[in-house]
Amino acid sequence: MKISVCIIAFNEEKNITESLRSVEWADEILVVDSESTDATREIAESLGAKVLVNKWQSFAHQKQFAVDQASNDWIFSLDADEIVSEKLKQEILFLKTLPEIRLADGFRIPRLSVYMNRTIRHGGWYPDFQLRFFNRQKGRWKNVLIHESVQMNDGAATEKLKSDIVHYSIPDAAYHHKMIGERYAPLAARQMFERGKRTGILKIATVGLTSFLQTYILKGGFLDGIAGFCIARFAAHHSFLKHLLLWEMQKKIDSNN
After folding, report:
1. Domain of 208?
2. Alpha-carbon gap, residue 204 to 201, rounded angstroms
3. φ, ψ of residue 84 in degrees (nearest 5)
4. CA distance linking residue 22 with residue 24, whole number of Å
5. This prediction's pTM
6. What are phi and psi of 146, to 5 degrees?
7. By the number of CB atoms within 10 A of the CB, which of 14, 99, 130, 162 ranks highest?
8. In this structure, what is the dihedral angle of CA atoms 96, 50, 156, 88, given to the nearest 10 degrees?
9. Boundary residue ending a domain (151, 169, 187)
């Protein structure tokens, strides 16, 4: 088994070094850069990665482009703000020693997020299994606007690994708030709209509180201290905003009819 690690990046000069160093064991490291204006490409090349530039369309499109350009069928997909833990590395190296006939076609991997300098294990954030290690002959990235994932072919077998991808996605509260307003909520609203989902005033008024209670109480977010409270509060804001944006899309369509 030969493995290609595929990483997508845009202005990730602060993160890309640790991400790349965590996958030095791979047979190939491919970085697909969406026209960064910082030193992302130079850093990646200096650490031995093959770097391709591809204009941004969507997360799913960029990740599938990386898969298609890889030299090997076995793909390990990693974001530039993620690292492979030492234990996960050892699990993967063990799999490389096995005959491929004994392997599943894809592997789901737990992802451990670091938020406000704390690992988050509650609030629905862990284990957050991600299908990131797979044979590209048996699966591909599903073409969606947000929450992209690998969709395996019918009949393909998947298994779970035990060790973590470590995710450093949100450096501070200001960034979290910005990403909800500029990326996550608008994309989620657009995806809901395109799938025929609709919302109303009552839903807009209550969805934030419902989301907060689910994250903070039912899913144990309170066990993560102030970080858990912030995650629940931002989850509430995200739910409220995406439904409000969806409602605005609905009204715009209604006014044009």
Report:
1. 172-256
2. 5
3. -90, 120
4. 6
5. 0.91
6. -145, 160
7. 130
8. 50
9. 169
Q: Give, in degrees to the nearest 5, the angle at Cα 109 between 113 and 54.
A: 80
Q: Do 121 and 197 fall within a single domain?
A: no
Q: How do residues 139-178 score in pLDDT, each as one tens digit?
A: 999 999 888 999 999 999 999 999 999 999 888 999 999 9
HEC profile of 226-249: HHHHHHHHHHHHHHHHHHHHHHHH
Name, in order, each residue with C-beta under 8 angstroms of 57's C-beta and a sequence gap of 6 or more: none
90-107 confidence digits (pLDDT tens): 999 999 999 988 899 999
Give me the number of domains the chain comprises.
2
Q: Are residues 207 and 159 both part of a single domain?
A: no
Helix (H, G, I), strand (E, B) or coil at 169: strand
d(CA 68, CA 50): 14
